[in-house]
Amino acid sequence: MVDIDDIRATSWIISTNGILGITNRFPCSTVHFLLTNQDSSGAWPMFILPPAVTNYSATYATGHALRALYNSLPDIKDSLLARHINAAIQRGVHWLRLTIADKTTSRWSDYEQKEGEYESLAVSKSLSGLTLHTLNILGKSNDTLNRNWLKGLEMADASVDINLRERSDKGFKTTNTAVAFTDATRHLVIPWQLIATTDAYRNGSFSEKLKANKWIDIVIENLDADKIAKTDRFAKAEVLIALRYLLEEQYHFK
């Protein structure tokens, strides 16, 4: 954990360690890393930045950091540390609930919405799926959020290429207004939408479930196993995670 500055990648690793039950196998305190780098808003930034750079919070990093803390909790034996983790989770959840960009479709943007900032205005369907999934596994979603997600599914999205990525760029300014860093990220459009739809399905009405089934069927019918096998490992991993969620929910593949 020395000289680590990428919170999003680190959260993936810490989350996996928690799932595997090996959180306490390392001399460093991975959970402490996340606790100390939570922003005062309750969210997490993508990167640890110098004090001269204006603070910011990112939906992607916050979602993964929350999952990492939640997955680590079963291995935490220190009751005081567990309380700190739970408090951090509550603050992060509050930020996610506060910064939703469109409640009618359960959509979030990459960054907290701020007037005059272009990056804050565009919603991300991929990140919205990650966020809704995060709230669901934490038990912090609700019937309305899940049903609105199902209502907001767009059939056109189900037909996009599995490798299609949403583009997000954000420049960070120092106190003297010079651009010091650029957060350039690409989010796969389909996998997290599949996962969120799987989570939200249980709360849907008959018509909403019917729509979700049609949407998922289109995605699955368009999958090309040979094409997925040739794609990069990150994309392949996210696709396989999404397919695993469908299998766990008894989805029947043709």
Class from helix and strand fractions: mainly alpha
CATH architecture: Alpha/alpha barrel
CATH class: Mainly Alpha
Mean pLDDT comes to: 88
The gross shape turns out to be globular
Quote the CATH topology: Glycosyltransferase
- Helix % is 40-55%
Spatial extent as radius of gyration: 18 Å
Distance between the first and last residues' Cα: 44 Å
Query: What is the N-to-C succession of helices and strands?
Result: HHHHEEHHHEEHHHH
Count every beta strand, where a strand is a DSSP E run of 2 or more residues. Answer: 4
Beta-sheet strand percentage?
5-15%
Strand order of the largest sheet: 1-2
Q: Major sheet: size, sense and barrel closure?
A: 2 strands, antiparallel
Overall domain count: 1
* Total helical elements: 11
Outline the low-pLDDT stretches: none
Report on this model:
By secondary structure, the chain is mainly α. It has one domain: Glycosyltransferase, CATH 1.50.10. Helix content is 51%, strand content 9%. It contains 11 helices and 4 strands; from the N terminus they run ααααββαααββαααα. The chain has a two-stranded antiparallel sheet. A hairpin with a 5-residue loop joins β3 and β4. α3 packs antiparallel against α4, α3 packs parallel to α5 and α5 crosses α8. The longest helix has 20 residues. The model has no long low-confidence stretch (mean pLDDT 88).
Please write out the topology.
Elements: H1 7-20, H2 30-36, H3 59-72, H4 79-98, E1 108-109, E2 123-124, H5 125-137, H6 143-152, H7 155-158, E3 165-173, E4 179-188, H8 191-200, H9 206-221, H10 225-230, H11 233-248
Antiparallel strand pairs: 1-2, 3-4
